[in-house]
Amino acid sequence: MTDTSTTSQTTSTSTTGTSGATDHGFSVRPLGQHIGAEIRGLDLSRELAPDTVARIRELLNRHKALVFKNTGLTTDEEQSRFAEHFGPLTAAHPTVRFTGQSSSNVLPVDSESSVANKWHTDVTFVINPPQLSTLRSVVLPEYGGETLIANAAAAYADLPEELRGFAERLWAVHSNDSDYVRPDRVTSDAERSYQEQFVSSAFRTVHPVVRVHPLSGERGLFIGAFAQRLKILGVTAEESLDILRILQRHVTKPEYVVRVTWEPEQLVLFDNRITQHYAIDNYDRQPRKLNRITVAGDVPVNVKGERSYSVEGDSSDYSQIVEP
């Protein structure tokens, strides 16, 4: 199918749903040259037709992050059903457990317990991080609380040729005991409990610094907070930190970032294999809750086809390994 969504005008797609249901045409509007597209007119609370799912996957491969407006989603069950169109679901988290949730697959991204204002890719400390993440708005502050999402493929492509070749030879150790769980300030017992649970079981996995996307073939910088200040194999700790800082600055260049402003009944779907994201802490810690459901992923590979490997921790209860 030809993708016309990168033109300056809004495009439309019409599909027929399963069981006689009809999904009306939906519009696609790019949000930037390198990342992001807004989708309207698609009811995600209903079962989607296979060709609709294929079109969404196609758009995701191109735009890396899709912002669905007026989705019709009101429950975790509906969000789970949408996410399952793309593969088996993971558990909510490898170490953090939540009570009172309707499903073991739902991770509440709640301002009462955590603030994810560090650039990261979800759960890269396990052998097969999620391939996709979905975030659904549940409770929103009066202002602020936007989410930034960065295109790690565009960042890789922007590197000088010599630096690209160097990065392709590197491997990084990702751990759940990282700066991600060391916020600048702890404001409640709930935050302290969340941090303690996050590191309650140790995970360390070695991933390529440049990962090849299994569907698009694109190369992207696979780093972020869980690799930050951790040793890159073959260099000193100080050199590791300097190299990671250089590469990370490319990932978060404004040209490669989309800023998502949250609205009611909104869902964001992003490709966790080739993006990073950051939750802006600019809302005075008003109540803010997004529910996250993730889709099980594959084991990352580098440009030579070499696979990531686990050093510590068993994540089999968190996620099955899927093949692309």
Automatic annotation (TrEMBL):
Q: Where is the composition biased (Low complexity)?
A: 1-23
What Gene Ontology cellular-component terms does the record carry? cytoplasm
Does the record bear Oxidoreductase in its keywords?
yes
Q: Name one GO molecular function term.
A: 2-oxoglutarate-dependent dioxygenase activity
Identify the stretch(es) annotated as Disordered. 1-29
Which cofactors go with this protein?
Fe(2+)
Key word Transferase present in the record? no
Domain annotation TauD/TfdA-like: ranges: 28-294
Q: Name one Pfam family in it.
A: TauD
Keywords noted in UniProt: Dioxygenase, Iron, Metal-binding, Oxidoreductase
What the entry lists under SUPFAM superfamilies is as follows: Clavaminate synthase-like
Q: Which family does it belong to?
A: Belongs to the TfdA dioxygenase family.
Name-wise, this protein is: TauD/TfdA family dioxygenase
